[in-house]
Amino acid sequence: MSGYLNIRNLSVSLRGGGPILRSVTLDVAAGQVHGLVGESGAGKSMIGKAVLGTLPRALQITAGEIWLDGQDLLKLSPGQRRHRIGATTALIPQDPLTALNPSRRIGPQITRRLVDILGWTKAAAEARALELLAEVDIPDPRRVMRTYPHELSGGMRQRILIASAFAAEPKLIIADEPTTALDVTVQKQILRLIAEMQARHGTALLFVTHDLGVVSKVCDSLSVLYAGKIVENARMRRFFMHPIHPYSAALLAATPTYTNPQGSLMPVPESVIETVEQEVTAHDRRWGRR
Amino acid sequence: MRDARSELTRPIGVRLWLSGGWLMLLACAAIFAPWIAPQDPLAQDLFLGRMPPFWENGSEAGFWLGTDSLGRDVLSRILYGARLAMIVALVAGTLTCLIGASLGLIAGFYRGWPDRIISRFVDIWMAFPPVLFAILLIAVLGTGLTSIIIAIVIIDWTRFARVIRAEALSQSAMDYVASAQVAGRARFGTMLTEILPNVLPTIVALLTLEMGIAVIVEAILSFVNLSISTDSPTWGGMIAEGRISVHQAWWVLVFPLITLFLTVLSFSQLGEGLKDRFDPVLR
């Protein structure tokens, strides 16, 4: 197995209910950006949450393996897993408004992981935080460290969360639709910032999004998810030139372009949906509704 | 964009001033009662029975708010009564808060079986009529300050548990809790550093409310003569005695009643005012 994160046949289902993820298999190579696209409700975020161990209580992992740097996370004890994830991975969350603790200042929220997990001294962690805030173009980082989240705009907060994610030099970052909650104008800046930071730090990135346009800009490879099932894993160039699965092709065709903004706005055809649904039921029939 | 520092220097509202002022006054009265009370609160003098307050005809100098049927000074008894009221409010309120809020926090954050046990317990507990339950408890525990406090704690922790559980539940769903978990924080640490500071404003509001309720419960218990020994003055006891002679000497009933009313009102207003000020913005 090559790559930093390897997910093998991961199945997640509601406790005592139907499946949410169906035998998901995907790889994120070290230092590469892997896109994860799908409609809302396809289970994109759940893959990230399963890796990070923050699945909602109602869900459980029923089968599969999550290999992180050659170690199956699901075979570790909860404490070991938490420590391992804390030391090697980070999350850029979807909604910057709820991702910072409203009652604590920015500074300690960035430095806590450095101090807690990596055992840095407080002074070193603070110096590092200042450096990172400057790196994500926060004006006057020293002042911002002392502010509370509600004093900052959404874009500023997302920058802080990005800085915070990169603070401990993680090997893997999971970005869960990091631009969805932001203004379109800010989205572009944030996207560029994430791409820059990723390139500079050489971090592997699992980029969850529903926006193929975004994927084409930042990713090296991608997985397309439908109803909790991966319909296609592909390298970027190959995917855009020649998508294999009809759903992928339909998805690509549905993406509006600058040259033809009106005409290209078409839904995924019924027949394609039927094909994917058939695959999903076939999967469920074979593996049982677990 | 608002600045947190300007929030803190914002002038304190009238509500906070008035309620805080009254409670400070009462606290002073409780602490300095032996020095500021004009009379001995227990001294009886049948020749001075049912003296009216100072602005009415036939009042006696030195007995500002009149005397009861046994000739005891109403003002002095109210001042001494404040001692018991304040002790009960502080001790019972704080203990109730500590126990109830801890259980609520655990239930709301950990969910699962701790939540099931605590929540079912709260449901059962809340089915008891509180006043009856209090009287029953005192009957079992015997009268006295400690018994009153224990009774209040046993009855009222559920209020905290239920409200704080709900708050902790909604806070736990926030992304910053997930972030703390991803950062490798232990569960218990996450609860203390992420959840607790955000439910603190609610805890404070509930605490002051609870102090008011503790004062009322104590008054009810002394009204039915189940509080501490009858010879120390209590507001509830004074109200009970005043009730009998309300047509001859209204002041014996009315003054402790007003004091009690203002105190409970102040506690609840103080809580509301504090919550407004310290609630993290953007909720």
From TrEMBL, chain A:
GO CC terms: plasma membrane
A GO term for molecular function: ATP hydrolysis activity
Localization annotation: Cell inner membrane
Record keyword ATP-binding present: yes
Primary residence: membrane
A Pfam cross-reference name: ABC_tran
Membrane topology listed for this record: Peripheral membrane protein
Record's keyword annotation contains ATP-binding: yes
Domain of life the protein comes from: Bacteria
Keyword set, alphabetical order: ATP-binding, Cell inner membrane, Cell membrane, Membrane, Nucleotide-binding, Translocase, Transport
Domain spans labelled ABC transporter: 5-252
PANTHER family assigned to the protein according to its UniProt record, in alphabetical order: ATPASE AAA-TYPE CORE DOMAIN-CONTAINING PROTEIN, OLIGOPEPTIDE TRANSPORT ATP-BINDING PROTEIN APPD
Similarity section: Belongs to the ABC transporter superfamily.
Protein name per UniProt: Peptide/nickel transport system ATP-binding protein
Automatic annotation (TrEMBL), chain B:
Gene3D superfamilies: MetI-like
Pfam families according to UniProt: BPD_transp_1
Single GO biological process annotation from the record: transmembrane transport
Transmembrane segments: 12-37, 84-110, 131-155, 203-228, 249-270
GO CC terms of this entry: plasma membrane
Location of the protein in the cell: Cell membrane
Membrane topology field: Multi-pass membrane protein
Family matches, as CDD domains: TM_PBP2 (cd06261)
Domain ABC transmembrane type-1: 82-271
Keywords: Cell membrane, Membrane, Peptide transport, Protein transport, Transmembrane, Transmembrane helix, Transport
Family from the record: Belongs to the binding-protein-dependent transport system permease family.
Descriptive protein name: Peptide/nickel transport system permease protein
UniProt organism field: Sulfitobacter brevis
